[in-house]
Amino acid sequence: MTVPARLILASTSRYRRGLLERLGLEFSVEAPQLEETPAAGEPPPARAMRLALAKAQAVAQRHPQAVIIGSDQVAAVGDSILDKPGDAVRARAQLTRLSGATALFYTACAVLCFDKASRATHLDTTRVAFRPITSEEIERYVARERPFDCAGSFKAEALGVSLLERIESQDPTGLIGLPLIWLAAALRGLGYDVP
């Protein structure tokens, strides 16, 4: 029986780490140390895929025998990209923009192993429809949940679900930051026991 290669998550996201832990595999985490500057005119899905691959490649260069998972998420409403707000002022502004609107969350995932010349990629798209939200509700929500490290300024897996009308997704974990349905299949294909 062949033992699968060491597994590394190329991310500093506590959300991605928590999601990957659900698969019950041993893995380590390493920061990709990558500049995430957007390219001019780059569509959100292309940006998500470019950054997911770049994160995986950055860590794979340091660990060519390991299997590396890179992931990135880009959220957009219309032509506006919704980055992580970082503070309450930006979070309130994002949620005001999202009130009554629909946002698209593009979550890209790449699995690489340089030594095995293995590369698999996937893009998950989730549509999130927000109900009309009053300024008082936005204020209360931001004060309670402090979603400053989440694109779109909400956490669907927590209190943020109360701001929504519906979520349309093929993989609910994609919205949180790592599409586990696809990833589990990709890792099984590389010899990992999932489940």
User: Which percent range describes the beta-strand content?
Assistant: 25-35%
Number of helices: 6
H and E string: EHEHEEHEEHEHH
Please give the CATH architecture. Alpha-Beta Complex
CATH topology: Maf protein
Mean pLDDT: 93
Distance between termini? 17 Å
Please identify the structural class as seen in this structure.
Answer: alpha/beta
Radius of gyration: 17 Å
**What is the global morphology?**
elongated
Q: Please tell me the total number of domains.
A: 1
Regions with little confidence, pLDDT below 50 for 5+ residues: none
Largest sheet: 7 strands, mixed
Name the helicity range: 25-40%
Determine and state the CATH class: Alpha Beta
Number of strands: 7
What does this structure look like?
This protein has 195 residues and is of the alpha/beta class. The chain has one domain (7-189): Maf protein (Alpha-Beta Complex). It has six helices and seven strands. The protein has helices at 14-21, 44-62, 88-98, 135-145, 172-176, 180-189; strands at residues 7-10, 28-29, 67-77, 80-82, 102-113, 118-130, 164-168. Strands 1, 2, 3, 4, 5, 6 and 7 form a seven-stranded mixed beta sheet that branches. The longest helix is centred in the first third of the chain and has 19 residues, at 44-62. The radius of gyration is 17 Å and the shape is elongated.
